[in-house]
Amino acid sequence: MDKMPTTDTPIVYAGVCCYRDAPKMLDWLERAFGFKKHVVYTGDDGKIVHAEMAFGSSILMMSSQRDDGVLGKLVRPPSELGANSQAIYIAVPDADAVHATAKAAGAEIVMGLADQPYGSRDFICKDPEGHIWCFGTYAPRA
Predict the structure, then answer these.
(1) Which of these, 56, 49, 15, lies nearest to 33 by C-alpha position?
(2) For the segment 117-141, what is each residue's pLDDT rounded down to a tens digit?
(3) Are 115 and 88 in contact, with CB atoms under 8 Å apart?
(4) Among 58, 68, 66, which Cα is nearest to 18's?
């Protein structure tokens, strides 16, 4: 395996999503939101043990749902829990365009496009396995 990159400063990665059918969801995320596969590692059983999807200069990490290992025991797909404990927010230059591709790919739109009082235009949707995705034009910076 190649040496994994490291950092000298903190970087927040907004989420690690576990999916029952991770290969299918990698393709769906490309089609629906415009993510690009950055790296995919599979185990001997063919399941994805670690994948990174690029979106602009950001990376979303994900894997197949597993019942072994610490993370696999702690993180479950929303469909197993009947709820979500977090949502992923992604700032985009054109929320209307992402909304159109997400809807065309079959995302469940749970809040349609709306102009917010703080200046953002955004929407909220669920992917086929129930993860919540928020897209908007508001892009705060530290």
Answers:
(1) 56
(2) 999 999 999 999 999 999 999 988 7
(3) no
(4) 66
Decide the pairing of beta strands 88-91 and 132-136: parallel
Task: Report the length, in residues, of the chain.
Answer: 142
pLDDT per residue over 63-102, tens digit each? 888 877 777 777 777 877 777 878 899 899 999 999 999 9
Quick check: 129 and 79 in contact, CB under 8 A?
A: yes
Query: Is residue 41 within 8 Å of residue 49, measured between CB atoms?
Result: yes
Burial class of residue 64 in the structure, from the number of CB atoms within 10 Å of its CB (0-12 exposed, 13-18 middle, 19+ buried) = buried
SS3 64: strand
DSSP state of 5: P
Residue 20 half-sphere exposure, CB side, CA atoms within 13 Å? 10
Q: How far apart are CA 60 and CA 35, in angstroms?
A: 9
Residue 45 CA, distance from chain mean position: 23
Entry pTM: 0.86
